[in-house]
Write a structure and sequence with these properties.
heterodimer; A: alpha+beta; five-stranded antiparallel β-sheet; B: 400 residues; alpha+beta; five-stranded mixed β-sheet
Amino acid sequence: MADAVHERRTDYGPPHHDQFLPPIIKENYGKWKYHEVLKPGVMVHVSHSGAKLFTVRAASGRLTSIQKIRMYCDLADKYCDGYLRFTSRHNVEFLMDKQENIEPLIADLKEMGHPIGGIGNSISAIVHTQGWIHCHSAATDASGVVKATMDELIEYFENMILPGKLRIALACCLNMCGAVHCSDIAILGIHRRPPKIMHDKVKKMCEIPNVSASCPTAAVRPATVDGFESVEIIEEQCMFCANCFTVCPAMPIADPLNDGISIWLGGKVSNARHEPMFSKLAIPFLPNNPPRWPEVTSAIKNIVELWAANANKYERMGEWIERIGWPKFFKMSGIEFQKEHVDDFKHAGLTYKRSTHITF
Amino acid sequence: MADAYPKTPMLDELEKGKWPSFVTEIKMAAADNPMGKDLLGLLERSYREKIGHWKHGGIVGVMGYGGGVIGRYNDLPDEYPNISHFHTMRINQPAGWFYTTEALRKICDIWEKHGSGLTNMHGSTGDIILLGTTTDELEPTFDELQKINFDIGGSGSDVRTPSCCCGQARCEWACYDTMGACYDFTMAYQDELHRPAFPYKFKFKFSGCPNDCVASIARSDMSIIGMWRDDIQMDKDAIKEYADGGMDIKADVVDNCPAKCMDWNGKELTIENSYCRHCMHCINVMPKALAPGKDRGATILLGAKAPIVEGALLSSVIIPFIKMEPPYQEIKDLTERIWDVWCEEGKNRERVGEFIQRVGLGNFLEAIEVEPIPEMVAHPRENPYVFYEEYFEEDDGSED
């Protein structure tokens, strides 16, 4: 043990990426001239030198076993001289300079059960969080909802038949490790019941002033309950953000009867055409209905198809809805508009309709 | 095999369908590892009961590091003993998520020996996530990771593991070397990354162009987004090729320009570059014909975050254009001034964006010694409640 401590290093940082770049990338780093999407999931980048780099993008579950990573490695060894990468949306990408390797690689990937696509005007993989696999604050599962949703939308991953790009993200609670708040379609787990306070444990497990301070609406106040130093919640002020639970484990908020999913639309991060936008609430609540969440997947499919049928070329979800107006969107989608759609947090007034630009 | 898989009728439903199944992945890992079997059992139970079974994280870690390991315990340890501890290790990914199979296989071997054999490739912030091990295995895992030069990432109130798009490695639009910059900042701030000392987390994300493939404008406290400030490069022959190939340049390109600074007369495309907003649309549509200009650098924006605590924010502009050349000293100096002010005045769990909202961008700019400029606002204030800080007294003397 002493020796181990002696040899121990810290703060050496990640390995430098140069050692992981295929020779064709090293030679053409910063020299790429243009790219073309050859077919769904396949593109070529052409260098000023004339060199061509081919990319095959395959769907990969975010949750990946080491056995699967080794299978990816076998393919990369076979077709790509031992190089591969992953994308910001959990896809796996195989990079090669030999065009003749594309088709056999695709055949092997399909054999393994990994669809090819996610490039161009398509739905790429869903960025998501841990859910019931690994998280303490989840209001829904993540991987299961994503799997069920992508099974429904697979044709839009494997083809480029949409007006523009469509990006879906899922976060299993408002903490949003998946930062879904700027997605074309955001699937967001929500709680709807205030935390159940374990009064005998609050003082032991939590810093009461921190718990009070954690509440964005000042609904959590110090209180003595049943002789215990604890906190109380003004329930009508609670909007179920779970901040107090984040700082205090003695205030569990997950609740099978009330937890579920909300659907948000029209966000984007790209600056192309319209500036980046937040997603807006479309469906306040859908039930958790494992294992396949049919209410969620059918709602999403309807929205995708409505957009696909009505949006102009290149128009993202948010650009389309902004053009036609939200009232028309609600009418066309059949989604009921209700009180929950109207903002009542900070700056809510900026979201009210302040003109007579109204469609009928 | 000693233990059979638990019965998972609900999860088994998720092995059907075309999208890759995470249930199949867990079963693959579970073949050689009892953790996977218990995870299947516990997850099936969550599916039945519609609630998670993970407790709040405990404080676990490896020596010398204050973050990077997320403690996780289940609330039914007697029934699922193999995952009574199921801690996550965040491992700092190589910039751009490029790997050799040799390096990946070594990581797999380590995780086969010391953990559940389950990973996320990758976590939302960008790290390699090694999902599920016991407290006793943390040090041995780190010991082996050291030997292959992979280090731990961030968690808690520290610099979170920076991430970037693939930039100049495979993209003609990258206006600077995102991977180089990401690596440089990661190395420069190792102490801040590994030892939480901030009011809350601080994220850097490096995107090569305004398409922002790593969502830096939505997800990072400091967004470094590639930018150019001269004219869009045009290849007239390639434009003609697009037109001859059937592209409707007026409808597809010109009419979608948010600045309306382009014109197509059927033969020639003209751009009034001084009005260009650098949105990327025309370049996206005609990558063979148009390209970002040659005078390239980045725009620096501050303050994006998800809703917790005070509401979601997008980053806003702090420097419209800066050249991106190592060692990026000007940006690092700015970063450190921001950290000084935020660490001094920020509240517990207050992100930089929320801090700016609370004190006001004007006051914040003064504190970090940056002059206000019109590029920082969508428009000037609409309300007349201006906090003037000084006024004249009668005996100040005549103004003229």
